[in-house]
Design goal:
Strand order of the largest sheet: 3-2-1-4-5-6
Shape: elongated
Protein name: Beta-phosphoglucomutase
Strand content: 5-15%
CATH superfamily of the largest domain: HAD superfamily/HAD-like
Number of helices: 11
Number of strands: 6
InterPro entries: B-phosphoglucomutase_hydrolase (IPR010976), Beta-PGM-like (IPR051600), HAD-like_sf (IPR036412), HAD-SF_hydro_IA (IPR006439), HAD_sf (IPR023214), PGP-like_dom2 (IPR023198)
Keywords: Carbohydrate metabolism, Hydrolase, Isomerase, Magnesium, Metal-binding, Phosphoprotein
Largest sheet: 6 strands, parallel
CATH topology of the largest domain: Rossmann fold
Bound molecules: 6-O-phosphono-beta-D-glucopyranose
Organism: Streptomyces spirodelae
Helix content: 40-55%
Catalytic activity: beta-D-glucose 1-phosphate = beta-D-glucose 6-phosphate
Radius of gyration: 20 Å
Length: about 270
Amino acid sequence: MTNLGLPDSIRACLFDLDGVLTRTAVVHAAAWKEMFDAYLRGRDGPGFRPFDPVAEYDAYVDGRPRADGVRTFLAARDIRLPEGTPDDPPGAETVNGLGNRKNELLLEKIRTDGVEAYDGSLRYLRAVREAGLYTAVVSSSANCRDILASVGIEDRFDVRIDGIVARERGLPGKPRPDTFLAAARELGVEAGESAVFEDALAGMDAGRSGHFGYVVGIDRTGQADALRAHGADAVVQDLRELLEDGAAQQARQVRQKQQVPGQEERP
Ligand SMILES: O=P(O)(O)OC[C@H]1O[C@@H](O)[C@H](O)[C@@H](O)[C@@H]1O
């Protein structure tokens, strides 16, 4: 293991954005809830079943491209809407219309509350770059570039595959592995030499089915078991923990090297 807490074979780190680098997963979840609840209330009346921002968000929306999130959640409730077109007015009863309304709400929330990056993630990113590994951001969000710019880290990635790039290239989104694989290919490394950093179950599935060298689950919401069940090799609450594990591991290796033959290494 390296001092980054990763297998020695890893040459590239592929980071998800929302919930991994920035505190924006909760903002997305809140915008989705507001939009879906307004839609369901209009459709089913005051007795409507509200969108569950934890269970339904994690299972059907988190990590997926915007339109896939709309479609997957509605399908789980046995609702089918026409696709519409990308310029449908926000709130129109189409997949695109509901997605556009959610985006309007998301941008309003971001304008009001701003965006913050996780300190531990910034430290980890710095350490990765100092160690000479490649970095990529791989996000389903079409707002990825603006969010990175708003926290001043858009230049810290060798490659960016986001919702806009994926649409331009016709890449299917998470849980399919294609966006992560495209990032690895662009960096000139094998999937097996790349580590995926994800907080969403759909992202874990992408990491597993793409056969990446290491998949780190970041548990911001108490879903460590689910992250493991979806293929995480390691689960941390903050990326700072990987630096601490890496440092401890290296100290152990140094002690082992200095050990007098025959003496036992203490745990
Ligand atoms: O609507 P956007 O900004 O293009 O983002 C798409 C998706 O991006 C993912 O990163 C988020 O986990 C989802 O909640 C979000 O819906």
